[in-house]
Amino acid sequence: YFNQSFLEQQKLIRFGSCITLKHVATGKYLTSCNVHYKTGSKKIISIKVFASQTLSNPNSLWIVLDYDQKNESNPIIYGKSIVYFLNKGVNENIVISRNYKSPSTGNWEVSCYEHLIESDSTNNNDTYIKSKETINIRDMEYNNFILRSHEFPFTIGNETYQEVVGHEGRVDGNDKWCIELFEN
């Protein structure tokens, strides 16, 4: 029992954990890059989901940060822990805009701020989020938007990206993300 309990503790997502967020429907990783929309906010498109399954790129790695910086290394609690996702590649937090819409689909722009993690699992009696669980991500700061990816591509320069947006509708399959601990 002790060994099993110890192994379960090692799988918990904690403040300070390095993670990846894999879109369940497409298998693509939430990724940030230093590219700007040409319209809308003209901010960094801090989010693109790329087709590569390679995790060696720091732009697909995220650090789970605590809003108050008081809970360092504590486990993340379903529906209660407010977290920031800091991208290792561009050193920015993810945010869903409440002012600018995506030029390609008219959904809310996502760029690189405060998110509440919710479990998607209906049979999970555990309090803490574990690696490889399916979650939803809501922006709790201003607008309660849900992070979504879908099959809409957009192009900037010669590069095509799979769009990630914020929306206000009900949660569906395009809103599900698999959170995984990244171990070097």
TrEMBL record:
Gene3D superfamilies: 2.80.10.50. Keywords: Repeat, Signal. The keyword rRNA-binding does not apply. It comes from the Eukaryota. Residues 10-67 form the MIR domain. CDD domains: beta-trefoil_MIR. This is MIR domain-containing protein.
